[in-house]
UniProtKB/TrEMBL annotation:
InterPro entries per the UniProt record, alphabetical: DNA_helicase_UvrD-like_C, DNA_helicase_UvrD/REP, P-loop_NTPase
Name listed for the protein in its UniProt record: ATP-dependent DNA helicase Rep
Statement: the UniProt record of this protein carries the keyword Hydrolase: yes
Keyword vocabulary terms for this entry: ATP-binding, Helicase, Hydrolase, Nucleotide-binding
GO terms for biological process, alphabetical: recombinational repair
GO molecular function annotation: 3'-5' DNA helicase activity; ATP binding; DNA binding; hydrolase activity
Domain UvrD-like helicase C-terminal residue range list: 1-258
Entry keyword Magnesium: no
EC number: 3.6.4.12
């Protein structure tokens, strides 16, 4: 069945783009497909976690044979937390847990970034905000307004304030934090190799252990800050994912290429996420994005060896849909979402959608 729906998905597009025919492997089993719907993102995350637990406990699926392919980091994070509640071990490959809840690691990485790229505004904003509950939002708002009026960059404005050439009421917390950066940079900026790693990620700071280990794997004697930062970014954003795994793996469709699992779940199959299309682009560019989205979805549904679950959400907070640029219609205080067009392209052999809660009840508790 899975091979058939994959063929249907491809045939709905330009066949010249996908000339390669699909053939079932000789040892493959009949694939199972479920198309599920949930009333909201939280219900979806809770339901997916329950489904994984049920398959593991009642049907012998091991944790390492579960792939969850989410197209946004926040969706991945919500599902990860629900799996944690059920004591199911998982790895979120969106950040591989290097920075998750680890403010000190974030701070030291921002320091390396600002040494390597002194004009990086995102890194500067991160550095200025760290260590404060609201990220020093009020003084930063004043700094931003000042920069808009004066034409100075945040760096230029802070340099003037730190040196006493300018004074902006209410910005002292930012100046103090920026002074910490000024005081720290000289001891690291000219370092290379092992000395650079020791300066950025000292052995005595346990929170930086993973960053330190990664750095030690890639440095040479002459590795400078810019090269170390660039290579670390690549390692963190594109981690190597083993073929054999012992935990549930959560990642994007793109990262799943080349992997397989007994149970594959694709959450939030809704228009605006799958496919993700920028409506400000030209029609030709939007068509290219549609085809790329179809290719990624094809990658996702063909990762499974046994069970494929395609999940979608019916309702969402209006503000959330706007921020995520998801297609919707407003109904009262909620946004009604539209399932991904790719689900309709899977052909007649694909099962009709059913409520996620109903699936759990029928599949795992029917006999009880």
């Amino acid at each position: 069945m899975i091979v058939q729906v994959a063929k249907e998905l491809i045939s709905a597009n330009n066949p010249k783009r996908y000339p390669k025919k699909l053939h079932e492997m000789s040892d493959s089993v009949d694939g199972e497909i479920q198309v599920l719907q949930w009333n909201g993102p939280r219900k979806e995350a809770e339901g997916i976690a329950k489904i994984v637990k049920c398959y593991v406990e009642t049907e012998g699926i091991t944790l390492g044979e579960v792939l969850i392919l989410a197209q946004r980091g926040d969706i991945a994070d919500t599902i990860f937390k629900e799996l944690e509640k059920l004591n199911l071990e998982a790895i979120d490959y969106y950040n591989e847990e290097i920075f998750k809840g680890n403010m000190l690691a974030q701070e030291r990485f921002s320091l390396l970034n600002l040494i390597a790229n002194p004009e990086d505004r995102v890194a500067l904003r991160s550095w200025l905000g760290q260590g404060n509950v609201d990220w020093r939002a009020n003084p930063y708002s004043k700094l931003r307004n000042y920069c808009e009026e004066s034409g100075d960059s945040p760096f230029e404005a802070l340099e003037k304030m730190a040196s006493g050439r300018s004074n902006l009421v209410g910005c002292q917390p930012l100046i103090d934090r920026y002074q910490e950066l000024i005081d720290t940079k000289p001891s690291i900026i000219d370092k290379t190799g092992l000395e650079l790693v020791e300066g950025c990620f000292p052995e005595e700071i346990d929170a930086c252990r993973k960053l330190r280990e990664l750095s030690l794997e890639i440095i040479r004697e002459d590795t400078a800050p810019k090269e170390l930062f660039k290579t670390l970014m690549e390692k963190i954003s594109q981690p190597e994912i083993p073929q054999k795994r012992s935990e549930i793996s959560i990642m994007s469709l793109h990262k799943a290429k080349g992997l397989e699992a007994d149970l594959v779940i694709v959450p939030s199959c809704i228009e605006g996420l799958i496919p993700l299309i920028d409506e400000t682009k030209t029609p030709n560019e939007q068509q290219d994005e549609l085809e790329e989205g179809r290719r990624l979805f094809y990658v996702g549904i063909t990762r499974t060896k046994k069970i494929l679950i395609l999940s979608s959400v019916l309702w969402m907070n209006v503000g959330m849909t706007k921020s995520m640029k998801i297609k919707h219609t407003v109904s009262g205080k909620l946004a009604r979402l539209q399932s991904s067009t790719f689900l309709r392209d899977l052909g007649p052999s694909c099962p009709k959608p059913m409520k996620g809660e109903e699936f759990i009840k029928r599949r795992f508790y029917h006999a009880k």
